[in-house]
């Protein structure tokens, strides 16, 4: 492939063959060095890099825009009110019009000199998706920060290999390339949660993808720090569960219902404590319910709706709305439980019926009114 050429008949510069999609959050120190590295790695090809930033507080987007003013190959997408590596990659890839999209991290841990091999493997038709792999002959994973990260990565690999339709040495890789049309075809089926967009692609594709692993290194991070945390690990497990349930149980609902169970436990704990201090039932029940609602709201805001997290005044207003929604849910719970008990005289069934109505009501209203999906 040749340098950017100008179409003879129109005189207009033609678009890139390759879009490098880089999800970034607080990567201001890596943007410049990464663009310089891509200039070297992709010299002679028609390429662009699309940084997808989630409104990083460190000024990543300003650095991207400054570079873009001097270099037409640099593009930036800034997302407000949304967070997440996988969803950032999805939005970046869908904004590309190139033949091939390549995905890599923005912290120079992936070896950009392997991009040409990934792209050529896709273009020559030998595979649908070419993966920069640390776990094939010639690969190297020494850049992972410590033994804990190695254990985590190995554990994730084993879990993913149990349900992936193809055998892959490094399904945890975030460094891969595929045709843009292939990505666009799979995109509507993606979960788009967490970090592991490659696992999401392989599990979401309606057709089995032919995968080729190309050995590559994984360097130590150059600047900034890893964003991988316990929540990302939870999201990875939730992704696998979502795919196993074939999407029948929305991830969010699973998380919301699990946190609801924590709320019931919180309610009971607070009630027992207040009863032990001599409080009457109504005071204990009221206080337990209040504390449970606050705990549930905080957990839902951090986990269930992480990508829509409310902050500042919006968080306070969200808590008020959440308590209103849950109060109506509590009334519906009691009303339905009473009705079922009157007809069946079965205590447990009545109680479960009431709880189910409440959790479905609370989830539906929280998703539409509080976190506004
Ligand atoms: N837009 C956006 N939003 N980008 C993010 C977010 C986010 O919420 N979280 C992380 N990123 C970006 C980082 O800025 C970086 O460019 C890239 O995603 C990888 O994030 P790291 O925090 O560096 O992840 P890691 O070092 O633990 O790498 C692991 O995950 C990567 C992504 O799957 C390893 O498993 C890598 O192999 C893998 O590529
Ligand atoms: Mn990294």
UniProtKB/TrEMBL annotation:
It comes from the Bacteria. Gene3D superfamilies: Spore Coat Polysaccharide Biosynthesis Protein SpsA, Chain A. InterPro entries: DPM1-like, Glyco_trans_2-like, GtrA_DPMS_TM, Nucleotide-diphossugar_trans. CDD domains: DPM1_like. It is a multi-pass membrane protein. Residues 256-371 form the GtrA/DPMS transmembrane domain. It is found in: Membrane. Coiled coil: none annotated. Residues 19-184 form the Glycosyltransferase 2-like domain. This is Glycosyltransferase family 2 protein. It comes from Acetobacter farinalis.
């Amino acid at each position: 492939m040749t340098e950017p050429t100008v179409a003879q008949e129109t005189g207009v510069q033609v678009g890139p063959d390759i879009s490098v999609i880089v999800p970034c959050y607080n990567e201001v120190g890596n943007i410049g060095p990464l663009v310089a590295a891509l200039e070297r790695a992709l010299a002679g090809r028609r390429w662009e890099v699309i940084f997808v930033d989630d409104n990083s507080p460190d000024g990543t987007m300003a650095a991207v825009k400054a570079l873009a003013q001097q270099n037409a190959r640099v593009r930036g997408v800034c997302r407000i009110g949304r967070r997440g590596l996988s969803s950032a990659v999805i939005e970046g890839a869908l904004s590309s019009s190139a033949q091939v999209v390549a995905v890599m991290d923005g912290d120079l841990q992936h070896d950009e000199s392997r991009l040409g091999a990934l792209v050529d493997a896709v273009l020559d038709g030998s595979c649908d998706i070419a993966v920069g792999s640390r776990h094939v002959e010639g690969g190297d994973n020494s850049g992972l920060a410590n033994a804990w990260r190695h254990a985590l990565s190995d554990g994730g690999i084993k879990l993913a290999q149990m349900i992936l339709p193809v055998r892959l040495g490094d399904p945890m890789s975030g460094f891969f390339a595929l045709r843009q049309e292939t990505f666009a075809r799979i995109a509507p089926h993606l979960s788009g949660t967490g970090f592991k967009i490659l696992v999401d692609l392989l599990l979401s594709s309606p057709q089995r993808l032919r995968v080729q692993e190309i050995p590559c290194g994984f360097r130590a991070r150059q600047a900034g720090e890893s964003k991988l945390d316990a929540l990302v690990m939870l999201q990875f497990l939730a992704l696998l569960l979502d795919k196993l349930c074939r999407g029948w149980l929305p991830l969010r609902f699973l998380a919301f219902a699990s946190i609801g169970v924590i709320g019931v436990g919180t309610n009971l704990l607070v009630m027992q404590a207040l009863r032990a201090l001599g409080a009457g039932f109504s005071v204990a029940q009221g206080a337990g319910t209040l504390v449970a609602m606050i705990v549930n709201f905080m957990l839902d805001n951090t986990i269930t709706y992480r990508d829509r997290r409310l902050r500042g005044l919006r968080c306070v207003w969200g808590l008020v709305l959440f308590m209103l929604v849950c109060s109506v849910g509590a009334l519906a719970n009691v009303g339905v439980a009473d009705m079922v008990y009157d007809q069946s005289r079965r205590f447990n069934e009545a109680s479960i019926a009431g709880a189910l109505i409440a959790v479905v009501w609370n989830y539906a209203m929280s998703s539409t009114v509080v976190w506004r999906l």
